[in-house]
């Protein structure tokens, strides 16, 4: 009889072997690429199907706090969902994903970010959401810099933490987390380096950069600190690449400085799918952000009733029900090219656009 459950610490190597078989058939080690996900301390969050002492399916998540404009939201980053080729078609992936969502809620998570958009996730209520852009910058157009640009070392972790904390939308990341990321040498499944930009006064910015080549652009998947300092670090971080792409960090209103010499700024949605898995807890977390946006009248007059299936907004005697599966498009906005969330007519139609969208956290080093 197949059993769906969390893994034990001593079972993690078998789970990694399964994931390597599915995702790295030509070589590579998921355990090395994602040291926090596959850490023995995270074994219970590797939701798996076992039978006869073998693991046949996996859906894993990493629980971390995210900060969204001062709101602290407990988040589950989900990925590496797979089934052994011998047992596909038996519903194991759906079982592990449903089990994962239940466990993530038990952990206190209210937001789930999934690194994929396959039908399995859509059936579970995950949706494309969020709005991101990338500045594609020819290295030859960048200014000559007098800043010191070097690869970050573990001794720089206190500086990395301080610079990351200046970002209004970010994941909470401990010194141990940073240490694991620096040692792994990966970001978003690709070999990467963390670069530090220093003024004479000290560190001013960091860049998490997927390495490029003469034929392929380098790619900045996370940055923090001074955006002007980021500009001064791009040429060195690009290496031999002729172009460096910079993903806009959510909440960064100085990004046009980076894009000033860009040859293109393509827009896109979040790279995976999103679901608010515990609406009551989520809206409790972000209520101060909404009240600050809406003022006293919203704080006094907006009524919100939420359960796991839907949220009901009531304003000036008018109600609007939003199913949980559609909440992420309302709260974080629809991605470019996706149909916008449809508002019902009435007072809520003018109120809710004052409150939403709020920025969606960007994976960066927290990609799973």
Structure description:
The chain has 368 residues and is α+β, with helices and mostly antiparallel strands. The protein folds into three domains: 3-123, Aminopeptidase (3-Layer(aba) Sandwich), CATH 3.40.630; 132-268, Aminopeptidase, CATH 3.40.630.30; 277-355, no CATH class. Helices cover 30% and strands 30% of the residues. The chain has helices at residues 12-23, 30-33, 92-106, 119-123, 157-165, 175-184, 227-238, 255-259, 279-294, 296-301, 324-332, 347-355, and strands at 3-6, 46-51, 54-68, 71-83, 111-114, 132-138, 148-151, 169-171, 186-187, 190-199, 202-210, 218-225, 243-247, 267-268, 273-276, 303-306, 310-315, 318-323. Strands 6, 7, 9, 10, 11, 12, 13 and 14 form an eight-stranded mixed beta sheet that branches. A hairpin with a 2-residue loop joins β17 (310-315) and β18 (318-323).
Question: Structural class of the helix and strand makeup?
Answer: alpha+beta
Instruction: Name the helicity range.
Output: 25-40%
Count of individual helical segments? 12
CATH class category of the largest domain: Alpha Beta
Mean pLDDT score, rounded?
Answer: 95
Secondary structure blueprint with pairings:
Layout: E1 3-6, H1 12-23, H2 30-33, E2 46-51, E3 54-68, E4 71-83, H3 92-106, E5 111-114, H4 119-123, E6 132-138, E7 148-151, H5 157-165, E8 169-171, H6 175-184, E9 186-187, E10 190-199, E11 202-210, E12 218-225, H7 227-238, E13 243-247, H8 255-259, E14 267-268, E15 273-276, H9 279-294, H10 296-301, E16 303-306, E17 310-315, E18 318-323, H11 324-332, H12 347-355
């Amino acid at each position: 009889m197949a059993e769906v459950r969390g893994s034990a610490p001593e079972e993690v190597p078998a789970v990694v072997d399964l994931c390597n078989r599915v995702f790295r058939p030509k070589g590579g080690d998921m355990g090395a690429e994602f040291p926090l996900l596959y850490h023995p301390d995270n074994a219970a969050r590797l939701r798996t199907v076992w039978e006869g002492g073998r693991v046949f399916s996996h859906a894993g998540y990493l629980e971390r706090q995210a900060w969204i404009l001062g709101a602290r939201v407990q988040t589950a980053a989900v990925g590496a969902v797979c089934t052994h080729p011998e047992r596909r078609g038996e519903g194991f992936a759906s079982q592990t994903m449903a089990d994962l969502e239940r466990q993530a809620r038990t952990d206190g998570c209210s937001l789930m970010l999934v690194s994929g958009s396959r039908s399995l996730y859509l059936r579970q209520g995950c949706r494309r959401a969020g709005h991101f852009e990338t500045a594609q910058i020819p290295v030859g157009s960048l200014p000559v810099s007098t800043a010191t640009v070097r690869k970050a070392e573990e001794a720089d972790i206190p500086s990395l933490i301080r610079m990351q904390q200046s970002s209004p939308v970010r994941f909470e990341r401990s010194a141990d987390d940073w240490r694991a990321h620096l040692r792994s040498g990966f970001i978003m499944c690709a070999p990467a380096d963390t670069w530090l930009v220093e003024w004479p006064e000290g560190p001013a910015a960091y860049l998490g950069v997927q390495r490029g080549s003469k034929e392929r652009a380098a790619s900045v998947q996370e940055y923090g600190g001074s955006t002007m300092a980021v500009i001064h670090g791009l040429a060195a971080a690009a290496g031999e690449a002729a172009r460096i792409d910079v993903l806009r960090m959510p909440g960064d209103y100085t990004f046009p400085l980076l894009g000033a010499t860009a040859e293109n700024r393509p827009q896109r949605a979040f790279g995976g799918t999103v679901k608010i898995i515990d609406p009551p807890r989520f809206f409790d977390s972000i209520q101060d952000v909404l009240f600050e946006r809406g003022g006293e009248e919203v704080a006094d007059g907006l009524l919100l009733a939420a359960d796991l299936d839907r949220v009901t907004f009531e304003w000036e005697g008018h109600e609007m029900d939003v199913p949980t599966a559609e909440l992420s498009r309302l709260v974080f906005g629809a991605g470019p090219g996706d149909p916008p969330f449809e508002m019902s007519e009435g007072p809520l139609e003018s109120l809710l656009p004052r409150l939403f969208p709020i920025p969606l956290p960007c994976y960066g080093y927290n990609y799973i």
